[in-house]
Structure formats: C-alpha cells, structure tokens
Amino acid sequence: MVRMSVLADALKTIYNAEKRGKRQVILRPSSKVIIKFLQAMQQHGYIGEFEIIDDHRSNKIVVELIGRVNKCGVISPRFDVTLGEIEKWVVNLLPSRQFGMILLSTTYGIMTHEEARRKKTGGKILGFFY
User: What does each C-alpha distance from 111 to 15, 44, 46, 100 come to in angstroms?
Assistant: First the structure.
C-alpha cells in the first residue's frame, strides 16, 4: 500500500490509539511536519512526551497519550487561508471557541490559528486537533 500522506497516517494512528485507550503509540515514518504538529499538541496539553527513535531508515516516534485527544485530522488539500478566513475555518472545524486548534503552515513556520492571528498572517491549512 502506498502512503499518500505521512501526516494523515500519523494523526489517524494517534486518534485510533486514543479511542482504544492506549497509553502510548508508535508513529512511523517520521517527518519534520509530524514533529512540529506533535510539538503544538504537546504545548497545548493534548499529548504527553514524545521520543524520536533513530532506526537508520525514516525514524519512529513514540508518543505518550494522556487521554485528551477527542479528534485530530488533516485537511487535504492544503487550502490557502487568509487572515480573514481563519474564523470561518475555526467555526467549521472546531466544536467551540474555547478549545481545539487548527494548524497552519505560514511563512513564519507551522503555528496554531491563534498565533497566526496575533502575527497577522495567513497560510496553508495543515490540520486540526481537539
């Protein structure tokens, strides 16, 4: 089976493991985008620690789950989002304004929709978690 999106595979694996009540999950292969996505999830308290294991191929990531991820997913294709359109995407994807994040790939790097609003920038939409 050919992998279409490494990020989509990783997020689906996290979501499935979380639904099954697992304490940790192994993601492979690894990529810079996955690591940035996991750092954002960790920063906002949705996952615990994660460790990158070098297997001389494409690396593995072991993620500690803490039972806070209700849903996470990727938005494909990666639509362009302007500063004004961020609100529309938040309303469509997230269950409420209080929690959940949308991740954008901007010229300043990968960041949440709130950071993008503060920096007054748009970008391409990567995915979401809540």
Answer: 21, 12, 15, 13
